[in-house]
Design a protein that fits this description.
This protein is α+β, with helices and mostly antiparallel strands and 131 residues long. Helix content is 18%, strand content 35%. The mean pLDDT is 86.
Length: 131
Amino acid sequence: MPLHMIKLCVGVSDVETLERNAERSDWRVVHTRMTPKRAAEIEDGGSLYWVIKGSVLCRQPILDISTVGEGAASRCEIKLASRVIRTAPLARRPFQGWRYFDKDVPPDLTVLEDGDLPADLAKQLQEMGAW
């Protein structure tokens, strides 16, 4: 089972906005201060799960993790695939930076049908314990 990462998606209000932005090349690289020590495990099929407005709603496959610069000026660049894969909503409290994510990973929503619930309604049902 691959190791994943989870990060807050700041400045994005919904998955549709992230999908539009993911098509731009500058949105396919995420900059962080700390490079994951387990980068090889993440690059072996891992994804970056995005927390949008308090819920994990989607993920993007991670293509490469590299460290740029040296010393105090160094930073980590995480290169992502342009496709955004929606997941079942999973409530998550705010946190700083990124975290490893290998337990309780939400399943992908692979088939979207006409009767699917809007994301905000699905989130409310999950918070009530009905989903």
